[in-house]
Amino acid sequence: MSLVLDVPVIPRAEWSTRAAAHAERADSLTAAHRTRAARGEKHPVEDFLFTYYSYKPAILRRWHPGPDVVLADADERTTWRWYRSTAEGVAVDAAAFRRDRGSLYRGVVGLLRATAARPAQFGCFGLHEWAMAYRTADVRHAVPLRLGTDGTDAVVEAHDLKCTHYDAFRFFTPDAVPRNRAHLSRETQVTVEQPGCLHAGMDVYKWAVKLGPLVPGHLLLDAFELARDIRTLDMEASPYDLADWGYSPVAIETPEGKAQYVARQRALSERSQTLRTALLAEVTEEGDTPGRADFLRPDSV
């Protein structure tokens, strides 16, 4: 069906240039991972963005203009899901996406809004990774512990665990779980998620992917870059010795390390808040109401 929309129309030469530049940027961001994958090589830091989130590099290459834009002479996109024909060309069918993905859409918007509205907390010092290695020989990475097993346990025991992110908390060892200040659950995630959390910042990338064509390409790649930078601090502040991989430790067991961690955490939190605000501005309509977080099942992360 042909519809008339009072929105900007982008000529084919312009939008195809944007799409090509987007794919080039995406390829640059994923080049090292794709090279390692072709060789069967693992990376303890960067693989996380492709294994935990399980999104392939190809997802990053696909450019969307976002809602309220018409692409002229874009007949090839008439077969793309959640696109529609208009009198001037082809546009993202935001209404169809919201209708087809209603629960997910409302849940993501509700979580983003709730997280963005809360004050950021900066007293966790990245101890979630330490709690995942507490009193166990079955650590998550095939990398030596910087302080050894006993030293790692001692750091956990010397600190108050203040993790607010369920998808980090659920990987705590059994002995670490009761040491956390709060017992987190999937059901309470939307009520405790806060913008100072590194993992909440990384998850902005996940939400950008899940919102599909509603998210303009530049925001998707900005979210991926943010997740990459957060993951770097996440592991530099972890108990693992990553010197052989070219990473310098952020020794959060020392006052100097704590100060360094918080300074970088604050900067990353500011970036995540900027992206949350931008995502919400792009994907929501006036009158949208937050939904329940029922979509946040363990198999959805």
Strand content: under 5%
Structural class: mainly alpha
pLDDT average, as an integer? 93
Largest sheet: 4 strands, mixed
Number of domains: 1
Question: Percent range for helical residues?
Answer: 40-55%
* Overall outline: globular
H-E string: EHHHEEEHHHHHHHHH
User: What is the number of E strands?
Assistant: 4
- Major β-sheet strand ordering: 1-2-4-3
Separation of termini? 36 Å
Unreliably modeled segments: 1-5, 297-301
Evaluate the radius of gyration.
Answer: 21 Å
Region (Disordered): 282-301
Protein name: 3-methyladenine DNA glycosylase
Biased composition (Basic and acidic residues): 289-301
Descriptive key words:
disordered C terminus; 48% helix; 301 residues; 3% strand; mainly alpha; 3-methyladenine DNA glycosylase
Q: How is this fold's topology laid out?
A:
Layout: E1 9-10, H1 12-39, H2 48-51, H3 57-61, E2 70-71, E3 83-85, E4 90-92, H4 94-100, H5 102-117, H6 128-131, H7 148-157, H8 166-169, H9 189-192, H10 198-210, H11 217-236, H12 255-283
Parallel strand pairs: 1-2
Antiparallel strand pairs: 2-4, 3-4
Helix pairs in contact: 1-11, 4-5, 5-10, 5-12, 10-11, 10-12, 11-12
What would a concise description of this structure say?
This protein is mostly helical.
Characterise the protein shown here:
37% of the residues are buried. It contains 12 helices and 4 strands, in the order E-H-H-H-E-E-E-H-H-H-H-H-H-H-H-H. Strand 3 and strand 4 form a beta hairpin. Helix 5 (102-117) packs across helix 12, helix 10 (198-210) runs parallel beside helix 12 (255-283) and helix 11 (217-236) runs antiparallel to helix 12 (255-283). The chain has one domain (9-125, 184-300). The chain is globular. It is mainly alpha-helical and 301 residues long.
